[in-house]
Amino acid sequence: MQPGKPVARRPVVRPVAADETPDGPPCPACGTPNLAGRRFCRRCAAPLQVREQPAALPWWRTVWPFRRRVRGGSGRALRRTLLVLAVAALVLAGFLFFPLGRYVFEDVRDKLGGTAEISPTGVTASAAAPGHPASAAIDGLTNKYWGAPALGASLTCSFRTPFRLVGIVVHTGVSKEPQEFRQGARPTRAELLVTTEDGKVHRKAVSFNDKPGKQTVRMGISDVRSVELVLREATGQGEGRPVAVGEVEFFRRT
């Protein structure tokens, strides 16, 4: 007898007890509702718990080398090294440009501050014509003058207390009257030698207009102790006509 042919069992239809659609938060990818507590969507398997995005960084933190995310783990050391180099460069620049910065600062103070005349405590001349001593250049009178017998003669004014010299006013010639002014020799070019408290000598070449009246020379030197005026060129020279400097005035910053 041959074995019997197996017969497959017929499927049994089972009734659905209830709707399996869960009531829960929708999937952020496809919108399918999912039961609370699930980690992945039951339809598309997308993650249901989205990680919170970090706050946006300020713009300056996104520029290298201030980015906080770098590769290799060596970014922090690199940033510190660059910061130290930047500070060192600023310090070096401060030392190199300090004299220039101080000059600009003092120049601004000279322009914004007031001025006052200061009188020398002593005056000497390398040479003087008879009747025209060095003291006549600082007596406050323009009709009396220091007479230099030749070019190269110098007038030196000294001061007891160091001060900030901001300007010098020079009256050239024998008088401020135009007719009398032309009758004497008068300097047209000179050199100022300013000595400061530390012994340093500052040189400044000046030119004078060949006309009566005051002529201003702008200065800007601190801790001045003496000023020497050396005559280099003159006009109207002749026999018995010394080079005349009527008055020299000095102004300090207040």
Task: Give a quick set of tags describing it.
254 residues, alpha+beta, rod-shaped, 8 strands, 32% strand, eight-stranded antiparallel beta sheet
Explain this structure.
- This protein is of the alpha+beta class.
- It contains two helices and eight strands; from the N terminus they run H-E-E-E-E-H-E-E-E-E.
- The chain has helices at 75-112, 178-181; strands at 115-118, 122-125, 146-148, 154-172, 186-196, 201-207, 214-235, 243-253.
- Strands 1, 2, 3, 4, 5, 6, 7 and 8 form an eight-stranded antiparallel sheet that branches.
- Strand 5 and strand 6 form a beta hairpin.
- It is rod-shaped and about 170 Å long.
- The model has no long low-confidence stretch (mean pLDDT 84).
